[in-house]
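hiii so um. not sure if this is the right channel but i have a protein structure encoded as tokens and i wanna go backwards to a sequence. like what aa goes where. can anyone help
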């Protein structure tokens, strides 16, 4: 099967949908990638938008489900394909879908602290990571710190907790 690799930088535009397919779980969401360019007077002009439906399988289900939500700025890497279907009126439609291999927050737009007991951060002198994770969201001078939520990864143990909270 021919697979087209793609990296999409954008925002999650809907609530994550988690469901079971056979013995496996999948998390689905849509990402909008918006282009814009600088105008002659220094302002910004909006361009075209790309909407991609993203499917996360395997270990991504737990990490994405615990760390991301609607409005989160993300970078998604995966393989893109088209899905054909008939809508309610019987019209044949096509949508662009991606099977993600990696998903993470866009660190050019948010500040993230990783929560994992074995990970102590950039230097060992700063001590171990705390039990809360924070994201600072905002522009150059404005930052809003959002309280975190935690979920046990894969139900294994509290040693594999990961969490981030994003604004809705």
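sure thing!! here u go:
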């Amino acid at each position: 099967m021919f697979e087209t690799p793609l990296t999409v930088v954008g925002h999650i535009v809907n609530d994550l949908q988690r469901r079971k397919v056979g013995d496996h779980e999948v998390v689905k969401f849509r990402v909008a990638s918006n282009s814009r360019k600088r105008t002659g007077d220094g302002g910004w002009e909006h361009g075209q938008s790309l909407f991609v439906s993203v499917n996360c399988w395997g270990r991504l289900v737990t990490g994405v489900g615990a760390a991301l939500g609607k409005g989160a700025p993300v970078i998604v890497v995966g393989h893109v394909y088209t899905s054909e279907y008939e809508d309610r009126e019987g019209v044949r439609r096509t949508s662009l879908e991606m099977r993600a291999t990696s998903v993470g927050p866009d660190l050019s737009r948010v500040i993230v602290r990783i929560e994992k007991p074995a990970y102590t951060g950039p230097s060992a002198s700063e001590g171990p990571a705390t039990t809360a994770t924070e994201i600072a969201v905002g522009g150059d001078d404005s930052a809003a710190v959002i309280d975190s939520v935690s979920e046990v990864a894969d139900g294994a143990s509290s040693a594999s907790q990961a969490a981030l909270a994003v604004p809705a």
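oh and The longest helix spans residues 60-67.
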